[in-house]
Amino acid sequence: MISKSFADGVYPVMLTPFSDDNKVDYASLAKLVDWYLESGVAGLFANCQSSEMFFLSLEERIELAEFIIKRVDSKVPVVVSGHISDSREDQLKELNAMADAGADALILITNRLAGENEGDDVWFANLQKLLEGIPSDMPLGFYECPYPYKRLISDESLKWCAESGRFFFMKDTCCDIETIERRLKIVKGSPMKLFNANTSTLLETLKSGANGFSGVMANFHPELYTWLNREYEKQPELAEKVSDFLTIASMIERQVYPVNAKYYQKIIGNFSSIQTRVKSPELLNETCQLEVRKLDNLTREIKSLLFN
User: Fold this and answer.
1) Which alpha helices (DSSP H) does 19-142 contain, by range?
2) Which of 169, 114, 175 shows the shortest CA–CA distance to 143?
């Protein structure tokens, strides 16, 4: 069995800052990494959907992983995906490139292992073939990415992966308390940890044994999620109120994400541009911008109550 441990807590799904001319902005990325670390996160999830991985070249994904890992400097683990291709040959090329970049774990995208209309038998067979081409001592994980379609891992596949000793990390996007509770029972006693991506169900799943949060709202206020993960048992009544705020705040995800997150990062001084490759920045109209600024005001008030 691989000897590796990933701390409980918050693993932000990292943004990729771009300049106005659509190139990766490494000066802003350095500020972003430092901001995450200062917020007390347990680790970082690089080259994920929030990173716009489907719109990054392999060279860009490699450079991003190398830069982030170097910037973090072993302070926290960096789990990396960038697993976007259709063919197994290309998938192995990109995953092994991420391993060579120094990733602490490779995160496999569940929808890359079978087509939307293919069964779990195809998914499992493709996983086996993929595992043959990845170093056996490389820690692995899963991400139920909703693009290009969401594929939830089956109970049977999850059980096999947990018992294999190769899987340590799961970014769960089912958004269902009963499913997460069932999954927690399946992985119990194994190295695999489950990180919920959904704010609304987070507190209840933490009480059931979930290991933390890995969702887009950690790009707005990661320290509040870190507080909730750390304090929900010690301060249950206050934790309920914080959870209520985080749940309502998370409705901003339904806005123009990730443009709105980049706008927020620009407000707080980390980003120089709100350029993205997935959506036009022009979609973030004046009203949307006002909503982000109002969220920033409320976040500051909540932080002053918790940390002062």
Assistant:
1) 26-38, 58-72, 88-100, 120-132
2) 169
Residue 61 CA, distance from chain mean position: 15
Provide CB contacts within 8 A for 59, sequence distance 6+.
none
C-beta separation of 198 from 175 below 8 A = yes
pLDDT band for position 1 (50/70/90)? Answer: very low
**What is the spatial distance between Cα 150 and Cα 58, in angstroms, rounded to a whole number?**
23
* pLDDT > 90 in the chain, percent: 98
Helices in the chain by DSSP H: which ranges? 26-38, 58-72, 88-100, 120-132, 155-164, 177-187, 202-207, 222-231, 236-249, 259-267, 286-307
The residues, ordered by sequence, that sit 6+ positions from 57 with a Cβ below 8 Å of its Cβ are: none
Q: pTM of whole model > 0.90? A: yes
pLDDT, mean over the chain: 96
Closest-CA residue to 229 (of 15, 189, 217)? 217
Give the pLDDT confidence of 150-191 residue by residue, as tens digits: 999 999 999 999 999 999 999 999 999 999 999 999 999 999
Cis peptide before 258 (omega within 30 of 0): yes
Q: Can you tell me the distance from the alpha carbon of 116 to that of 113, in angstroms, rounded to the nearest whole number?
A: 10
